[in-house]
Design goal:
Order of helices and strands: HHEEEEEEEEEEH
CATH architecture of the largest domain: Sandwich
Strand order of the largest sheet: 3-2-1-5-8
CATH topology of the largest domain: Immunoglobulin-like
CATH superfamily of the largest domain: Cupredoxins -  blue copper proteins
Shape: elongated
Largest sheet: 5 strands, mixed
Number of domains: 2
CATH class of the largest domain: Mainly Beta
C-alpha cells in the first residue's frame, strides 16, 4: 500500500507540473505584445485536443486499475492457517485515538474486566493479522494510515471493521482526514510494528503502568479515608469536654 501511495503521489505531481508548465508556456508565448489590438490566437490541428484528452484519460484509468490491484490484497487480508491473529478496538475521540488491546488488565480494580490500552500510538506484532474495530465517541473521524490500508471512517454508534498485515517492522504514520473541530490538525496516529517478543514486552509494560496507577489511586483513597476517620474520632473525643466546659460556665 505504501508503494501505491508514493506512485500515485509522484504521478499526480508530474501531471500537475506538466499542466502548470504548459499553462505558463502558453501565457508567455501568446501574450499580447501591444503591437496589435487583436490578441494572438492559438490554433491546433484537427484531433489534437481529443488526443490530449485520450492520453490523460489513459493515465487516469491506469492509475485507477493500479490502485484497485494493490489495495485488493489489503482489503481481503486474512490470516494463513496457523498464523497469529489479534483483535484491537480503535476508539476515536476529539482529538486522539485510544487503542484497547486483547490482553486482560491485572490489578485489584480491573482484574479480568478491563483491557490494557494506549493513546495515539498503536503497537502491533509483525506478520500478524490485525483486526481493528473502529468506533467514535463523539463526532465523525477517519482512520487513515496510507502504508497499511484504505481509509475507514469512525462513526459514533457504528462499529466498522478493517484488517491489515504489516510485513515489515517500523513506524507508520497517519492522520484523520475529516474535520472534527478546532484541534483537528493535531489528530495524528502512528502504528509501531515490532517483533512478537517486543509486543509481549510492551503489553507487559502497559500492565505494570496500569497496576502502578491503580496502586497510587488506592493509596490516595486509603489516606483520604484515614484522615476523615481521624477527624471524626477527634470530633467525638472533644465533644464531652466541650459539653462539660459549657455546664461549668
Amino acid at each position: 500500500m505504501r508503494i501505491a501511495f508514493w506512485v500515485s503521489l509522484v504521478v499526480a505531481s508530474l501531471i500537475g507540473l506538466l499542466l502548470v508548465g504548459g499553462l505558463m508556456l502558453a501565457v508567455r508565448r501568446f501574450r499580447s505584445t501591444g503591437a496589435s489590438p487583436e490578441p494572438r490566437r492559438l490554433t491546433a490541428g484537427r484531433g489534437v485536443i481529443a488526443k490530449a484528452a485520450a492520453g490523460l484519460g489513459a493515465i487516469v484509468l491506469a492509475m485507477f486499475i493500479f490502485g484497485v490491484v494493490t489495495s485488493a490484497g489489503i482489503k481481503q487480508a486474512t490470516a494463513e492457517e496457523g498464523a497469529s491473529e489479534i483483535e484491537i478496538d480503535a476508539i476515536a475521540q476529539q482529538w486522539l485515538w485510544r487503542f484497547e488491546y486483547p490482553a486482560q488488565a491485572e490489578g485489584s480494580f480491573s482484574d479480568g474486566i478491563a483491557t490494557v490500552f494506549s493513546y495515539s500510538e498503536l503497537v502491533v506484532p509483525v506478520d500478524t493479522l490485525v483486526n481493528l474495530n473502529i468506533d467514535s465517541t463523539d463526532v465523525i473521524h477517519s482512520w487513515f494510515v496510507p502504508a497499511l490500508g484504505p481509509q475507514v471512517w469512525a462513526v459514533p454508534g457504528e462499529l466498522i471493521e478493517t484488517s491489515f498485515i504489516a510485513d515489515e517492522e517500523g513506524l507508520y504514520h497517519g492522520r484523520s482526514t475529516v474535520f472534527s473541530g478546532t484541534a483537528y490538525p493535531s489528530m495524528r496516529v502512528s502504528v509501531k510494528v515490532v517483533s512478537q517478543d517486543e509486543y509481549e514486552d510492551y503489553i507487559a509494560g502497559l500492565n505494570q503502568d496500569l497496576a502502578a496507577g491503580q496502586e497510587a489511586v488506592q493509596e490516595s483513597f486509603e489516606s483520604t479515608q484515614a484522615a476523615e476517620d481521624s477527624d471524626e474520632t477527634s470530633s467525638t473525643d472533644t465533644a464531652p469536654a466541650e459539653a462539660a466546659s459549657e455546664a461549668g460556665n
